[in-house]
Amino acid sequence: MLRVLSILFLSLLCASRATAQTTGVPNVNDLQIRLPPLYVPTGSGTTSCGPGTNQGFIPGAPFPVAYETTSNTATAAVLLLDFFNPCSSPGFAFFPAQPVTCAGPIAGGTNVWYALGFAPVPVAVVGVTNALGYTRWNFNVPLGPGTVWAQCLFLDTCSSLNFKFSQALGFSW
Fold first, then answer.
1. Helix (H, G, I), strand (E, B) or coil at 107
2. pTM for this one?
3. pLDDT tens digits for the chain (173 residues)?
């Protein structure tokens, strides 16, 4: 009976709607990516695994790429890079969600959803946010083919769990 209840609980957890995923809110928990040829920031304000999060195939590797985050209340940011798993809808929710007073009205309740895979573990790249809550990572993308999904874990004492996530963004080369 306990096993049946466990399976039922996991099924209900996994049956959550994709809209419950993390939404990036500028200056709260937002992730952007800069890709060639124009290096215009893209992905801001999107919701993990939703429209606008997969940047598609980017030709011309090798090339540089930049990830940028904004979070006014975060003290540090960890960029998680997953080369093996696509964005996982509905993902995995950590509870309780960060209160709206820290997250802003759009992200409230949806900023602790993890959208990447658990195995193999994503590559973690630590960054420190500046006084304006801004963090940037620059990478050289090698010859392809390849795919990468990224999601940022913010260390944030304002959050009820002391962390929150950005939305997940991905691209192929």
1. coil
2. 0.85
3. 444 333 333 433 444 444 578 889 898 899 999 999 999 999 999 999 999 999 999 999 999 999 999 998 899 999 999 999 999 877 888 876 666 677 666 766 678 899 999 999 999 999 989 988 999 999 999 998 999 999 999 998 888 788 999 999 999 99
CA gap 110, 20 in Å, rounded? 6
Q: In what order do the strands lie in the sheet with 63-70?
A: 41-42, 30-34, 63-70, 134-141
User: Alpha-carbon distance 61 to 58, whole Å?
Assistant: 8
In CATH terms, is domain 2-172 a member of 2.60.40?
yes
The values of phi and psi at residue 101, to 5°, are: -60, -30
